[in-house]
Design goal:
five-stranded mixed sheet, globular, 3 domains, DNA polymerase, domain 1
């Protein structure tokens, strides 16, 4: 008989906000939001004091302030959060060799077969929570189950700062009363469709036969039916390969001026290309994304999004080529003002696997040209320039050297997702950050003889 799998999902509680409250005693016990405070800012994280007012992640900052006029906005520090994330993931790695990071602050751990070495899953979960708290001063909630979806839902049920274990024989009862929206792959539109047909809970789907679901919804219906019955063969994937890289920003004011848009494209293109080079990758396709300033419906997705893409003759890791190609895709975006602009690349291949490299510095005018007139030749000058720029960025930061035509890019919120190829801080910087955190926890007003009130986490 096959041994049941044991999956642990660890999710830091209000990660960004918890870091800020840990490091600044003046913020503890107060409703705070990490994110942009401007008219187009977005909530990246909300403390539990703020959540009492209905404030949540991804909410427009204007709405959050309306719900709680006393709300404190903190701009946040992505580098500091990334350093904390690395410390947390080092702890995760001590409990399982199979850790799948979903973002800076959450991960799946495969504990299957570790009971003899580490002990019962609940004991392991509590030990992990205690180690994260002791090392970082931050709370983490843990869910344990036989499949990934159950473990993730369980960690949400354990919040804040708790643990919930769902044994294999408890899965059906655990899932039965939950909304169909809790199933992976069911968004707002799919939920409406399911509700219209009488499927309100996961239990409703579990009781429907596979054939009935396939008849109504096709392969997707059969897939969500399996999940509703607690059947999921997906493994914990420690090393998921990125299929694309991108950078984007929301403008403080609507923009239609071509010069501003082109300068922003160059900034994003250089950032994406730098990440490609750090990972030893090149990209075959360039994608331009924008969101119109014209609102067409209510909700966070009320502003229409548009994308255009173009495949290159040869894969590239050159920011100038990415920018030139994206600028050629810009024409459709100029019909009306935009509020968001992004540049991305896909079709990633290992650098050594590509035969050539697009360059804007070809010696001969007769050289064949690629998209947007970029010559398909490489005399090495671009590579040497990019190498020098990368060395400066690695030593002094990504903003240390900029092209004169680049734009200053402000982001509406902080990203909580892994951004492959971003500059990794040196170990000395991480040690310094960790030292500051440990010093902060030694202050009398931070450390307590009893656990903090859950409402303050």
């Amino acid at each position: 008989m096959t041994r049941p799998r044991c999956i642990l999902h660890a999710d830091m509680d209000a990660f960004y906000a918890s870091v800020e409250q840990r490091d600044d005693p003046a913020l503890r016990g107060r409703p705070i939001v990490v994110g942009g405070a401007g008219p187009r800012g977005v909530v990246a994280a909300a403390s539990y004091e703020a959540r009492v007012f209905g404030i949540r992640s991804a909410m427009p900052s204007v709405e959050a302030r309306r719900l709680c006029p006393e709300l404190v906005f903190v701009p946040g520090d992505t580098k500091r959060y990334a350093a904390e994330s690395r410390r947390i993931f080092e702890i995760f790695g001590r409990y399982s060799p199979r850790v799948e990071g979903l973002s800076l602050d959450e991960a799946f751990l495969d504990l299957t077969g570790t009971e003899r070495l580490l002990g019962p899953p609940r004991v392991v979960g509590e030990r992990l929570r205690a180690e994260v708290r002791e090392t970082t001063g931050l709370p983490v909630s843990v869910g344990i189950g036989p499949i990934k979806m159950v473990a993730k839902i369980a960690s949400g049920a354990a919040k804040p700062d708790g643990l919930r274990e769902v044994a294999p024989d408890e899965v059906a009862a655990f899932l039965e009363p939950l909304s169909v929206r809790r199933i992976w792959g069911v968004g707002p539109v799919a939920e409406e469709r399911l509700l219209a047909l009488g499927f309100r809970t996961i239990g409703d789907l579990a009781r429907a036969g596979p054939e009935a679901l396939r008849t109504r919804f096709g392969d997707w219906g059969e897939a969500i039916g399996r999940l509703a019955r607690g059947v999921d063969l997906r493994e914990v994937e420690p090393h998921r390969e990125a299929v694309s890289l991108s950078e984007e920003n929301t403008f403080e004011h609507d923009v239609q001026d071509r010069a501003t848009l082109e300068a922003t494209i160059l900034t994003h293109a250089e950032a994406v290309a730098r990440r490609l080079r750090r990972e030893g990758l090149r990209a075959r396709t360039v994608v331009l994304k924008w969101r119109l300033a014209r609102r067409t419906r209510e909700g966070a997705r009320g502003y229409p999004a548009r994308t255009r893409q173009r495949t290159l003759r040869e894969p590239t890791d050159d920011g100038a080529v990415v920018a030139e190609t994206a600028r050629a895709l810009l024409e459709d975006a100029l019909a009306e003002p935009v509020r968001l602009l992004g540049v991305g690349v896909s079709g990633l291949v290992a650098g050594a696997a590509s035969a050539g490299q697009l360059s804007l510095f070809a010696e001969t005018a007769a050289a064949p040209t690629g998209p947007a007139g970029a010559p398909v030749a490489d005399d090495g000058r671009r590579a040497r320039l990019n190498h020098a720029l990368d060395a400066l960025a690695d030593r002094f930061g990504d903003d240390a050297v900029r092209r004169a035509s680049q734009a200053e890019v402000a982001h509406a919120t902080l990203s909580g997702q892994w951004k492959r190829g971003t500059r990794d801080r040196s170990r000395s910087e991480d040690d310094e950050a960790g030292s500051k955190c440990r010093d902060a926890r030694r202050r009398p007003d931070v450390r307590s003889s009893r656990p903090p009130d859950p409402a303050s986490r």
